[in-house]
Amino acid sequence: xxxxxxxxxxxxxxxxxxxxxxxxxxxLGEIIEPGISTLDIDRKGEEMIRKAGCIPSFLNYEGYPAxxxxxxxxxxVHGIPNKKNILKEGDIVSLDAGVIYEGYHSDAARTYGVGxxxxxxxxxxxxxxxxFFEGIKLATAGNHLHDISxxxxxxxxxxxxxxxxxxxxxxxxxxxxxxxxxxxxxxVGRGPKLREGMTLAIEPMVNIGDWKVWILExxxxxxxxxxxxxxxxxNTILITDKEPEILSLTAx
Length: 252
Known about the structure:
This protein is an alpha+beta fold. It has helices at 8-29, 38-51, 119-136, 145-158, and strands at residues 55-56, 68-72, 75-77, 92-101, 104-113, 162-163, 169-171, 178-182, 199-202, 205-207, 213-215, 222-224, 230-232, 235-238, 245-246.
């Protein structure tokens, strides 16, 4: 499938999807505390999404059984919510969610500390988020896609962490996953040229230890091979001829 350039009306729908998703993330962040189950988070997230007139992008996507991917500690992404999985003091938890508004998707992820967390874990969360913003400094029409990838990798590795290589970001629009694939690390070549009207989900996944990962027997949950903690940060962005527009952030 070719990379799609979005029309003005498509972009407006994606702006609204992003605004709603950003609000859902802000509100979910407020309920993260010791004692809450990952299933509670999923149910509250789905309720918020539906109350806003949207459909959860992830629910039943290729068989995924929940609306919010809730990944704890060494779980990188795609953790399946479970009523027996109770967050405790010192955990870190990544929430990945998507919404469909009038047929168009937005996709975003955040990582939170649960109660008091270690300085190293807080630094992991901060570096992961900051690496996204380092990458999108280069997300301007005329630059190339892998310029973003290289900037993310450099920022993360200069901080002493590692970037997951088996999972990548993606284009987004009327489908949750569209071309192009967007690695968070340098690959051969500069990748496609960025053009005004492209919409991309940029999502660094960063480990304290080695970058290598496994998939658990549930066929969804991705964990670090060495058991080190992992963080995830993602937004849906629009390429313009100036700075990219981040579609999935509130003013907060």
